[in-house]
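Something for you to look into today, if you have time. What I am after is a single protein written out in full by you. I want to see for myself how the chain folds. Could you add the entry underneath, on a fresh line?
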Amino acid sequence: MPTRTARTAWTGGLQDGSGQVDLASSGVGKFDVSFPKRSAEDADGTTSPEELIAAAHSSCFAMALSAQIGNAGGTPESLDVTADVTLGPDPAGGFRINAIKLTVRGRVSGLDAAGFAAAAAAAKAGCPVSKALAGVDNISLDAALA
């Protein structure tokens, strides 16, 4: 399997600095980052590590779920996956990702609601990004047929 690369160029300090994340492997874009906007309610056109993790988790989970649905004898027609990643204080100091909520609504043939829920739980457990995020205290899943 290939290795994928992102690069960040940063200038300045934490509060007054800023950077740009380059999705180098794909070349699909460069995105601004800054700590004040990372910790603000309004991202104002910048991304954050949490948003990038949410993108990675939602896309990985969608792929894993499509595989699990197929393994269970179903056919995925469409999956709408959202990952909400929450940054919060770390009791040991600083910050940490303290919660991720995966929400999926699917149109699937060949599986009932219980089968879909089981496939979603297996996908959550087996998704490589879920495994990488195993240190997050609370990764919840809300899975239902659309």
